[in-house]
Specification:
globular, FAD/NAD(P)-binding domain, 7-stranded mixed β-sheet, about 30% helix, 13 helices
């Protein structure tokens, strides 16, 4: 029976980061992962491969449609889909090997197989050949991540009708792709295949896209995405989707059936906590599958902790990493904290969309008095030089104290710009604080400075 101070079930962003931090703090740690590649859904079939495809598809579209304005004439542009997919796979492999190296560097044991709780202080590992090993640990972290939600009536066949996993590896460009769900996964992958030549129809049940994103920003994004060619239909209830004679048929309430080449089901994710042996230590989940934890990530079972997508909160890789670090530090110091109000979110479409803090709708619902400052990228010098002027920065600040409560961006490099806002808000910055910081010129972050100045009516270039 192998013994460790800490055993982590799951080698994703939360799990491997928790193990590394534990090793740094002097604990003997082990990670259990059934997939050959470490990194979890995010690295293998999520965040990283989708961003690689987004980047490649954006370059393809630029070469075919957007270089002439720069005086660059490009002729005969064609798509090499196998090469594009190989690059995506190479990125994933390289980063996964990097995680392996980090585990080795920190003397963390990697157990290949499926981890399952087997009573207090014990984890059973089932290898691919069926052999079983029992690990013993003083502390156990459950970091098993999440799985794709599939609506009733949607028949996943792994080829024509699939989830994001299949949409990351199509062997040809579908003539017509139907995306079920107008969240960030559906819009990102829909954008990839639209750029590569597909007709893309997005079916969203709600009356808006990207629930959770500030409504003003989401509305602007909807207009821009439709101009780009995405056929986004709101208020559509999908009854079924299935493969029929080599084609796909999607049936919606009150509408004619849609015939298409492929279907992407992108309707959210749920915790992968089933068949984990939770009952062997007396842990139960809520109706969605989440494990309930206290402020130190402790479950109801002594010595068992949970982090990442399998506990309530944003299902984001960086949130899982913060959980992992805080959880392990709490084991050693008795203190751990993650401010879930300040977890940034990014949608890597074009333009990018990023947010941190409260939305305008949340502030209104809470009765919080606030001031708003907005600055458009069309008035930013750097945005002009790179010919990417769509979108804006929106800063929301407390009406009485001027403390920044939320920042929302749609525009070039929004995912990078949101980092400054998140840092400022973590230190309790006011809009004036951000506006008084000297920003280099010409740069995109100047748009954040100007939006912060606009909160009090002091924007210079608007």
């Amino acid at each position: 029976m192998a013994q460790h101070d800490l055993v982590v079930i799951g080698g994703g962003p939360g799990g491997y980061v928790a193990a590394i931090r534990a090793a740094q703090l002097g604990m003997t740690a082990a990670v259990i992962e059934k997939e050959e590649k470490l990194g979890g859904t995010c690295l293998r079939v999520g965040c990283i491969p989708s961003k690689a495809l987004l980047e490649s598809s954006h370059k393809f579209e630029e070469a075919g449609h957007e270089m002439a304005v720069h005086g660059v004439k490009v002729a005969g542009v064609s798509l090499d889909l196998p090469a594009l997919m190989k690059r995506k796979d190479d990125v994933v492999t390289t980063l996964s090997k990097g995680i392996e190296a980090l585990l080795a560097k920190n003397k963390i044991t990697r157990h290949k197989g499926t981890g399952r709780l087997a009573g207090p202080g014990k984890v059973e590992v089932t290898a691919a050949d069926g052999s079983k090993t029992i690990l013993e640990a003083g502390k156990i972290i459950v970091a098993v991540g999440s799985k794709s939600v599939v609506l009733p009536g949607v028949e996943i066949d792994g080829r024509l009708v699939g989830t994001s996993t299949e949409a990351l590896a199509f062997d040809s460009v579908p003539a017509h792709l139907v995306v079920i769900g107008g969240g960030y996964i559906g819009l990102e992958l829909g954008s990839v295949w639209r750029r590569l030549g597909s007709k893309v129809t997005v079916l969203e049940y709600a009356d808006r896209i990207m629930m959770g994103i500030d409504a003003e920003i989401a509305a602007e994004a909807l207009t821009l995405f439709r101009k780009q060619g995405l056929d986004i239909r709101l208020g559509v209830k999908v009854k079924s989707a299935k493969a029929v004679n080599g084609r796909c048929v999607v049936e919606c309430e009150g509408q004619p059936p849609i015939d298409c080449d492929r279907v992407l089901a992108a309707t959210g994710r749920f915790p992968a906590t089933a068949d984990l042996g939770l009952e062997t230590v007396g842990i139960t989940t809520d109706k969605r599958g989440w494990i309930q934890v206290d402020e130190h990530f402790r479950t109801s079972a002594s010595g068992v902790y949970a982090i990442g997508d399998c506990i309530p909160g944003p299902m984001l890789a960086h949130k899982a990493e913060e959980d992992g670090v805080a959880c392990v530090e709490g084991m050693k110091t008795g203190y751990s904290h993650v401010d879930y109000d300040l977890v940034p979110a990014v949608v890597f479409t074009h333009p990018e969309i990023a947010a941190v803090g409260k939305t305008e709708e949340q502030l209104v619902a809470a009765g919080t008095a606030f001031k708003k400052g907005v600055f458009p990228f069309r008035a930013n010098g750097r945005a002009r030089t790179i010919n990417d002027t769509t979108g804006k920065v929106k800063v929301l600040a407390d009406a009485a104290t001027d403390r920044v409560l939320g920042v929302h961006i749609i525009g070039p490099a929004a995912g990078d710009l949101i980092g400054e806002a998140a840092a400022a808000m973590n230190f309790g910055a006011t809009a004036e604080d951000i506006g008084r910081v000297c920003h280099a010129h010409p740069t995109l972050p100047e748009a954040l400075k100007e939006a912060a100045l606009a909160v009090s009516g002091g924007a210079i270039h608007a």
